[in-house]
Design goal:
346 residues; transmembrane; atp-gated p2x4 ion channel fold; 2 domains; elongated; alpha+beta; 9 helices; membrane; nucleotide-binding
Length: 346
């Protein structure tokens, strides 16, 4: 008996096919609701998933490197002393100082001072030159050379794209409309595009971010993969009114050492400068069959929402809900002789 039941179950599993029963319901309200839901799902799949989100493409971010070069010459005259400033004088990494010197532990209560081991005389930064000494820096130029590699797609690009040759670089200056691909930027323009005032930032210092954006559709020829530059003031705006107003600008100190007789001396400079951070962001897309099939499959699954909603309306909200239940579900007596019945969803 048990062997026969197992054999029949195996036979039914391999040699029988079940198909759902379809019921055609002629009801305008339900029909319109179903089509509207299906149109909404179709619009979501085509408009959002495929067009806006590019669901048919795979994505990759770039490995990037940046090289910069600043050019310009400035002139100052302080207390009758003339000086010429070139890139060797005004381009350098910051060396911050947090205190005047090493404490010896000897203090004088009367003057409320403590002895330190340091260079003499100690720094006095209470007087800041105005107008700023190097206002001519507004005409300095910054050259940015950037290369990116999208390893997933094997694509390499440089911001020296097609048409950016030596002759073009020798005469171009970046402009967002006239020369958006020129890699040479005037310092005054960088400050202006970031929303700062050059005279203010030259006096107190500040930081500016230059974003090089590589957003590329590699389904097109790679020559259309070009950078876009945007400029953002990071900190140093003298017009800020929030808590950051207590620490306006950007400055650091550096020293030049020399020997006078047998005594080592130094000239200490407190520099109010412009810090430029170059930020590269990237996103490349290209057609891929796997995300395409995934997007289509998820979209087809969402189409089932229309059926679920319409079934809820048919079976629970319409006046003829009992009639529709009898049409949708076929109830037969169970093979086992019990008083209950088995409902089969068909």
């Amino acid at each position: 008996m048990m062997k026969s039941q197992i054999t029949n179950a195996i036979s039914d599993f391999f040699f029988e096919y079940e198909t759902p029963r379809q019921v055609l319901v002629r009801d305008r309200r339900v029909g319109v609701a179903c089509r509207l839901i299906q149109l909404g799902v179709l619009g979501y799949i085509i408009g959002w998933v495929f067009i806006y989100e590019n669901g048919y493409q795979s994505t990759d971010t770039a490995i990037s490197s940046v090289y910069t070069k600043m050019k310009g010459v400035g002139y100052t005259k302080i207390n009758g002393t003339e000086s010429v400033w070139d890139v060797s004088d005004y381009v350098f990494p910051p060396q911050l100082i947090l205190f005047q010197g090493q404490m010896t532990g000897v203090c004088v209560n009367k003057t409320k001072t403590c002895e330190v081991v340091t260079w003499c005389p100690v720094e006095d930064d209470s007087s800041i030159p105005y107008p700023p000494l190097l206002m001519s820096a507004e005409n300095y130029t910054l050259f940015i050379k950037n290369s990116v590699t999208f390893p997933l797609f094997g694509v390499k690009r440089s911001n020296l794209v097609e048409g950016i040759d030596t002759g073009y670089i020798s005469k171009c200056i970046y402009h967002p409309e006239n020369d958006p691909l020129c890699p040479i930027f005037k310092l005054g323009d960088i400050v202006k595009f970031s929303g700062f005032n050059f005279e203010t930032i030259a006096k107190l210092g500040g930081a500016i971010g230059i974003v090089v954006d590589w957003t590329c559709n590699l389904d097109l020829d790679k020559k259309y993969c070009k950078p876009e530059y945007t400029f953002h003031g990071l900190y140093g705006n003298a017009d800020e009114t929030d808590v950051t107003r207590t620490s306006v600008g950007y400055n650091f100190r550096y020293a030049k050492y020399y020997m006078e007789g047998k005594v080592q001396k130094r000239t200490l400079f407190k520099v109010f400068g412009i810090r430029i951070d170059i930020i590269v962001q990237s996103l490349a897309r290209k057609f891929d069959i796997i995300p395409t099939l995934t997007a289509i499959g998820s979209g087809v699954g969402i189409f089932g929402v229309a059926t679920v909603v319409c079934d809820l309306v048919l079976l629970h909200l319409l006046p003829k809900k009992e009639f529709y239940k009898n049409m949708k579900f076929k109830c037969t007596d169970s093979h086992i002789q019990v008083s209950s019945t088995l409902c089969i969803n068909s």
